[in-house]
Design brief:
By secondary structure, the protein is an alpha+beta fold. The protein has one domain. The chain is 29% helix and 23% strand. It is built from seven helices and 15 strands. The strands form four sheets. Strands 1-15-14-10-11-12-13 form a seven-stranded antiparallel beta sheet, with helices on one face. A four-stranded mixed beta sheet has the order 6-8-9-7. Strand 14 and strand 15 form a beta hairpin. Helix 5 packs across helix 7.
């Protein structure tokens, strides 16, 4: 009787362990990929007019239109209702994960903006200097071996860059800045301040991480739909433990599975190729 009871308990314990292992095995730290699709319209346009920010060699440009289109809406998310208003005020935006402070900015007439330049450009030294002088700007030697860093140090850098860009770039839609529903670019610098929407945040984070020695092959852009139904662009980075997301709607580098997003498509790192996300 005693042996039978122990056997039953042992079987139940083994079953519980197998269930736990199965649950862990069901976790997907790396985002699965589907079929090849065309790059988002805004990304393709960026690469044709600004190959440096795009990060692709000219030989890749012919691949931008390959495959069916997957991105069905402009990725002009600014985290809900447009934050571009006539008066400067402080508000809160609930991104479904955390409450984050969002500073609204004064509306700007496009025709009056003479000093509108992309972050990182050098044709106006004062604009580039405003970014480089930022205390949060990361400028470590490019020879730094990213793979030699422990993941804790990697995450520290990712969080630093994510938070500094989220703090320094003021939310503004492409329509407000350019009079266009979709325009991918580095953030626009106006009077020493940076403005942009979701993809502009992602591109600026990509620029800073590469300057800090993170290999381009670890970085990719992705498009998703938020819980609010907005088409949204983010930067992704692949670590040994899985794919992480750098998002303007949350301060921390976050595992892709932990975000309440419906993933649409993702860039193949370092290429003009994109695939659906499964």
């Amino acid at each position: 009787m005693f042996n039978t009871r122990n056997t039953v308990i042992g079987i139940l314990a083994a079953a519980a362990m197998m269930t736990g292992a199965s649950a862990q095995a069901g976790s997907m730290p790396f985002m699965p990929r589907g079929e090849g699709v065309s790059a988002p319209m805004g990304f393709a346009d960026l690469c044709r007019r600004d190959s440096e920010t795009c990060g692709l060699p000219n030989s890749q440009l012919a691949l931008l239109g390959v495959g069916p289109r997957a991105s069905f809406a402009p990725t002009s998310s600014v985290g809900g209702v447009s934050q571009y208003r006539r008066a400067t005020e402080s508000t809160l935006a609930d991104d479904g994960l955390k409450l984050i402070s969002v500073e609204t900015v004064e509306a700007i007439q496009i025709a009056d903006v003479e000093d509108l330049v992309a972050a990182g450009e050098t044709r106006q030294p004062e604009a580039a200097a405003a970014i480089q002088a930022s205390p949060a700007f990361v400028a470590e030697p490019a020879v730094l071996a990213w793979s030699a860093r422990g993941e804790r140090d990697q995450l520290k850098l990712l969080n630093q860059v994510n938070q500094s860009v989220n703090r320094e770039v003021k939310k503004a839609s492409d329509l407000d800045l350019y009079g266009m529903p979709e325009y991918w670019s580095l953030p626009r610098v106006i009077d020493g301040k940076m403005y942009g929407d979701c993809e502009d945040y992602a591109l600026e984070k990509r620029r800073r991480l590469i300057a800090a020695g993170v290999p381009e092959s670890a970085l990719s852009l992705a498009v998703a739909v938020t819980a609010r139904g907005e088409s949204h662009a983010v930067l992704m980075i692949t670590l040994k433990s899985g794919d992480m997301v750098l998002d303007n709607l949350t301060p921390w580098a976050t595992p892709w599975e932990d975000l309440n997003y419906r993933w649409v498509q993702r860039q193949v790192p370092g290429t003009a190729l994109w695939t659906t996300a499964v």
